[in-house]
Structure prediction request, 460 residues.
Amino acid sequence: MKHLTKRNPTSRKPKRMKRVNILLITLLALPAAGQSLEELCRLRVEAGETPGIAVGVFENGKSRYVTWGEASITTREPVTSKTLFEIGSVTKIFTTSTLAYLVGEKKLALDDPAQNYLPSSITLPDRNGKQITLLHLASARSGLPRMPSNFAPADAANPYIDYTEKELAAYLNKCELNSDPGRQYEYSNLGMGLLGFILAANQHTTYSKLITKTILSLLHMDATFISGERKGDKLLATGYNDSQSVPAWTWTDQSVLVGAGGIVSNAEDMLKFLIAQLSADHDPLSLAFQLTHREVAEAIGSTIQIGMGWHLKDHRYLWHNGGTGGFRSFVGFDPQTKRAIVILTNSTTGADDLGFHWLNESYPLKKIKKPISIDPLKLKEYEGQYSLSPQFAIKIKAEGSQLTGQATGQPQFSLYADSTDHFFLRVVPAKISFSRDKTGRVNALRLNQNGMIQEAKKTN
Prediction:
């Protein structure tokens, strides 16, 4: 999950760095007063942020949907409110809601040590005499890291399928906690996956069957399921990573971290889920949802708090986002105004800023850049390897009308032109500009990221 951070790129002069990291995530934001939701969605698709986007909103007691773009670049199938997307870490809210539901049924308690529900083959670590409770797992305060150190998928394009109870036990039996349980927030896919594993084991079922019984069936969310359960469904969108299609993630009953990110859904079903969050009824599911909304602790600074799975922004707006290999998702709602929004994209560029802005217009929108076209022959001039250090370089290549780059040990990324010799990235907020010698030949590049600049000479 990515969190929005505030930075002022003009507050200091750019620094020259000896190393480059093209994985930093920070967004520059600008307001777009007067633009409708339809216009904002269209702009993101036309600027190439994502092939398609599906948005569902609920306000004044009514639901409506805004969709734009394509579910697949190949088939040109348009996105609709029924198009299916991987929702990634938004799955975590289903896990915590299921915990709250079972608490309401008196089948377990939030303060129960998680160890009580694990098989004898798994021994959870403790620290300073403090044990991990179910609430610690649900509120990302267990002391467990984001991911286990033995997470080594055989297929990086389908990373969670082969992490089973065997690997989980091997890690937990030897790991040490980063902090005392309950002391501080640390977002953890491992912790939430472990919670999903515990809940399913407690009910002697699978995670898929458990959430179907406790949530999906009750809300008539018939289009929601675990990724991989409905292979070949015609409504499944194709995911894209920087314009390259990626295979769908799949999970099995043996994939123990499914509760951290395994769900597929669509805008219609997710809006049903959000509308149910706004209910003040006293039925078991509504009470479970209300329990998950309660603020537990500060999470990130003074602006982000944590409940059970849900994050709170400024102690008011409840939200979560998610991402997989080719999808991004955002859900959020305002309990005071009874407004809710879900945003789904089939790319690794999300729209969290749009979600927050719709909930509260004082939250800014990021600047959307629309690239210009450059003649493919001109793009060839930039090809080559640019060395930032003896061990680190960026290889630039022209593939038809698209310029791409690849840093040592990192995935390939696309470059989009602002103007001749000036390009920007979409996978991270960064710019690359090229320099020329007196003869007009490209001889170097500058990487500008996070307010810092690094120069690299062309070596071939």
